[in-house]
Amino acid sequence: MIEAVSVSSDHLALLEIKSEITLDPKGALTSWNDSLPFCRWSGVTCGHRHQRVTMLDLQDLGLVGSLSPYLGNMSFLRYINFSSNQLHGSIPPEISRLYRLQVLSLSKNSFSGKIPANIFNCSKLSFINLQLNKLSGKIPNAFNSKSMITVLALDRNHLTGWIPQSIGNLTSLENLSLHDCHLEGSIPDSFSQLKNLRKIGLGENGLVGAFPSFMFNLSMLEILSFPDTQLQGSLPSNLCLSQPHLTWIGLGGNHFNGFLPPSISNCSQLEILELPENYLKGEIAVDFGRLQHLTSLSLGDNNFGSKDLDDMNFFPSLSNCSNLEMMDISFNQLGGVLPNSLGNLSSKLWYLGMNSNYLSGSIPSSIGNLLGLTTFSLNENNFTGLIPESIGKLQNLQELYLLDNHFSGVIPRSMGNLLLVHLCLYFVCIRSVYERCPW
């Protein structure tokens, strides 16, 4: 038998939720009236047995207003999604009464105030997404070992303080995303308990300390993203040996020094390697030929190389990276010449940046094989000789930067076929075959 009192409480709660919405530009709540049973209202799903509300899905509707505390009266709710609206005010702590709740998604709104600590008492809650709001205060130190949380996303809020040690109690956690939360302090050692963690993002915070040692316990990790923090010290020499599933290493904009670990060659699933704006030095000794899934390689603004002819020895191994789309090794100390294997790089490559190094010799004519290139930058090197005629084959090229080199000869006539948006040839010793330069 359906309990009339409980059903009516759901009905009342929905009307209270509607009353707090001041603007409904898509008319999403026009069906929320007595002409229809509330289980047939837009965005509302009820269970068949008790006719109680189990799901509220009102995402991306442009709703303006606040979230009613009456939400906490719908005790059968398992799924709440108000993401991508314009809701403001605080997150009702009454949500903690929803002991059946599994999914809470309030992302991309303007919620403010503190994160209610008691919502983490919902023992069945597995998915929490509060990212892109205006929440403030500390992350509650309220995570217990009975929690079933697999996804915790708090990115881009106005939080403060340290990452609580109790996050280490979330042993079911698979995805932790705390980017751009104004957090400080070190990364807790308790993270070593997160054996199921697959994705961790802590970038754009004020985190300090060395590369976290807990990493070596996280064999399931796929995404490691700590860009633009203040981590320092050397990268571990055995990076990737215990994380064979890594697809993304994002550690740019830190204070890492020392050498690039050759062990990265063991990350056979790696798609993105981003280490720009650090203080890494020495030889690039990674065997990229083993990274056949690599799409993005960003090593710019470091101190790689020694202005030596052997600095580019790694380059031929990139020929096996058939999925490579973007490569940037600019602002380093790399010497040597570009090998003919340049033309064996991926046909998907659209960005190739090697400016501000000590590269010399001529540009191989095989550059004409890279038909996908839209940006090619060799500024501020020591290149000599002719600009190869084969550059004219790069019909997708939009930006070509060759300034501050020592090229000679004439500008190839074939370049007149290119629809370049930006062409920089200043400080190169060349002359045009045209009476007037067409650019």
UniProtKB/TrEMBL annotation:
Protein name: Non-specific serine/threonine protein kinase
Species of origin: Helianthus annuus (Common sunflower)
Bilayer topology: Single-pass type I membrane protein
Keyword field contains Repeat: yes
Superkingdom of the organism of origin: Eukaryota
Domain Disease resistance R13L4/SHOC-2-like LRR per the UniProt entry, residue ranges: 55-333
SUPFAM superfamilies cross-referenced by the UniProt entry: L domain-like (SSF52058), RNI-like (SSF52047)
Keyword Cell membrane among record annotations: yes
